[in-house]
Amino acid sequence: MPTAIRLPAEWEAQDAVLLAWPTAASDWAPILPQIEQVFIELIRQINRFEPVLLVAPDAALVRQRLQAAGLDGPRLQLYELPTNDTWARDFGPISVEIDGRVALYDFGFNGWGLKFAADQDNQINRRLAAAGAWACDLQCQPLIFEGGSFESDGAGTLLTTSTCLLSPNRNPHLSRPQLETQLCQLFGLRQVLWLDHGYLAGDDTDAHIDTLVRLCPDDTLVYVRCNDPADEHYAALQAMEQQLASFRTLAGAPYRLRPLPWPAARFDEDGQRLPATYANYLVLNGAVLVPTYDDPADGEALAVMASAYPDRTIIGVNCLPVIWQHGSLHCLTMQLAKGTLA
User: Fold this and answer.
1) Residue 44 belongs to a domain
2) What is the number of structural domains in the chain?
3) pLDDT tens for residues 5-17?
4) Keywords for this entry (predicted)?
């Protein structure tokens, strides 16, 4: 039996970021040129700081796109694999440390509680292992568990939402105490903070924590705040803010709370509100990529992130096309801890 298990924080050293290229066979088809440009910019910015591990059903086509953008360099590893969609955060492997050695956990992914097809995405981590992508063990775990559903501080605290983890189509055989016990054993946790309030209209994930609240260094929480009483989110996000104020660190201290601004409401052609959130950022080696939305609040969001990560370069990436499929920047990406990539 292992003597020590630890779930690293996102801001710890990374080998690469996993992405899955959008295709015409997915829901991206109506805006494929726009979302491809987002991916090109995302890869360009990530490659300034670390490699990208990219999966795509048609590697030749993607390589052609990337070469045209000047991105086919040594910091890009491309694997041809079938995919359903592009949300690497939720099907990608989760990096852990077991007895001081890095490993990857492969949890079950069922399309956010059986909402969407996920048969190909659920096999990507094992297919990458068969292709020799990993330098460490890939361990299959018997839970449905998505990377966007939790936050870790690297020191034994996990932050999650009860709405997501306790949804009936994920792990219905487990009660909240049973699920918490399993997570503590798998990740070596000392406490689980369950957020019971907060949501984003248009979100398909049952309130993933990475759309609402993020753990940062120095016991800091950045979170979305809505100050408009006329907005449908107002009551839920006010209750969320109150619950965050009640959370305590393992040392018994309150967290430093840094609110993120609230972008103007965006709607699709059917009038459905889209889940624009600044909380859906990605931490890299030396940088933080923050989603922007051509919104007056973009600058304030970047400033908040600069205060939370004063030692890193803060870079905005326009994610307006991404929210058309109900996710944002963090949802598209999964960081791979140092020692995981072959």
Assistant:
1) yes
2) 1
3) 999 999 999 999 9
4) Hydrolase
Long-range pairs of 253-256 with CB within 8 A, sequence gap ≥ 24? 253/219, 255/219, 255/220, 255/221, 256/218, 256/219, 256/220, 256/221
Rounded Cα distance between 185 and 189, Å, is 7
Q: What's the pLDDT tens digit per position in 157-205?
A: 999 999 999 999 999 999 999 999 999 999 999 999 999 999 999 999 9
The amino acid occupying position 100 is G
SS3 52: strand
**Residue 200 sits in a domain of what CATH number?**
3.75.10.10
In this structure, what DSSP letter does residue 220 have? E
| Sign of the dihedral defined by the CA atoms of residues 146, 275, 215, 335, in that order | positive
Range of the domain at 46: 5-337
Output the pLDDT for position 257.
98
The residue to which tokens 């359903």 are assigned: 84
Query: Strand 14-20's sheet: what is its strand order?
Result: 76-80, 52-56, 14-20, 334-337
Question: Residue 276's pLDDT band (boundaries 50, 70, 90)?
Answer: very high
Mean pLDDT of the chain: 97
- Rounded to an integer, what distance in angstroms lies between the CA atom of residue 99 and that of residue 70? 41
Does a structural domain hold residue 226? yes
Tokens of 103: 């490993």
pLDDT confidence of 3, banded at 50, 70, 90? confident
Query: Is 342 part of any domain?
Result: no
**CB-based contact 267:259 (threshold 8 Å):** no
Look up the pTM and report it: 0.97
What single-letter DSSP state applies at residue 49? T
Residue 1's pLDDT band (boundaries 50, 70, 90)? low
Question: Which position has the higher pLDDT, 73 or 114?
Answer: 114
Q: Is residue 220 part of a domain?
A: yes
Helix ranges, 10-133 (H): 32-47, 59-68, 88-91, 111-114, 124-130
If you write DSSP's letter for every residue of 239-274 in order, what string do you get?
A: HHHHHHHH-B-TTSPBPEEEEEP-PPP-B-TTSPBP
Query: For the residues of 300-331, what is the DSSP string, one character each?
Result: HHHHHHHHH-TTSEEEEEE-HHHHTTT--TGG
